[in-house]
Input
Amino acid sequence: MTVVIDALMYLGYVLIFPGFLFCFLAGMLLCGIDRKLVAKMQKRVGPPVLQPFYDFFKLCGKETIVPDAAEGICFMFAPLLGLAALVVIQLFIPVFGFTAISGMADIVVILYLLLIPAVSIILGGAASGSPYAGVGLSREMVTIISCELPLVLVLLAVAKTVGDAMGTGLCFSLRGIAEYQAANGSLICRISMLPAAAAMLLIIPGETGNHPFDAAEAETEICEGLLAEYSGAPLAVFKLSHAVKMLTLTSLFAALFLGGLGTGMVVLDALLLFVICAVLTALTISFVHAVTARLKIEQIFKYYWTVVTLLAAVSLVLAWYGL
Amino acid sequence: MFKRLIEESTEKSPWLFHINAGSCNGCDIELVSILTPRYDAERLGFKLAGSPRHADIVVVTGPVTKQSLPRVLRTIAQVPEPRCIVTMGSCPQSGNVFRGSYSIAGPLSKYVPVDVDVAGCAPKPEAIIDGLALAAKMLREKRGQKK
Output
């Protein structure tokens, strides 16, 4: 009997709360809020907040063209792979006190899983056989590599701070980090964590491939790059993955630096998480989008491996000295 | 219910793809002006797509020169159904001042079914938005007829 209830609970986790339904609704809303805010910052009226939903359902109703040069199966299933990986990450990230699947996941797993959406878009683009996708592919890989180094340093700094307090050296467990913050207050209140938090905020638009760092999908330059040949439902799934990625990264920030704010009630916590995610999206994605122009790929690389890496490294050194 | 949702969304999220078929660049600049803060067509869901595969509405400017005709037809063929073709400016409709020139293959309606014509040289932004909104309505009808 308990086995059945457990199975049903896990099914609910995967399909409803931190899983597909929540990701779909929250991600799309974040994307809509982002577009509205960018429009407001440019003194426009802007699309309705529900616009990403309209875009998604419209794309679902369009014809799906598979080009002759494309590798059919890989072309059609790559988008699903990326979306599935993002939903799995969402299951691992604690919503303050609540985690869907807690015991077995740590930061390193999330680091690996965060790569899969990017790999899936590269796979799909490569399978489409378009020269534009070829250019986009190399740029996407450089963008991933640029973001990865500072992200690892940020995670190490967090793991060292929490690990020192718990006496385990390095604490990679997300549950451990959540529990530490519930007991000692949010990590962002510590001086050593401030540069890491800043670095993480700068990593968010790069990881999601948003405006100044969207050289891989430059629509005016290389016809949306990796997505050039996609149409219909697979394109809709890629757009959805992009929206969910915004949710994933902002909620990862909330889990790493803003833990311990929860009220203990799951529904309220979920709402609070969504509000935090929306604020972070406005700060890191919309605002940056409205005030910057697209960077060249070598500028992206240089920026992440100097400024952002330096911030993260400073934080790591401070954490090592126990500040 | 799902079918109605898709139809409604089709009308509310028309993405544009712009083809220059030998235009003088006047209409091209006018088309971009509808996305500026003053007219802001994005409030109706319009968005310029980078690839014809993502588009719902194809906007053709210019008198369709002999050189550009095969490319225009090929690009339009790449747009997935349901799609609308909108000509912008007088050139793709009649040839405008280029009519009778040895290098002109237009009007466009000789080669593909055109859904909406927006006349003018160049048309006013209000007229463009009106024409595109009409095309968005037609997209919904086309989607409804399909199934």
Chain B has one domain: 2-142. The interface with chain A takes residues 5-10, 12-13, 37, 40, 42-45, 48-51, 53-54, 56, 78, 80-82, 143 of chain B (CB under 8 Å). The helical segments of chain B are 2-12, 26-33, 69-77, 91-94, 125-146. The CA atoms of residues 63 and 91 of chain B lie 4 Å apart.
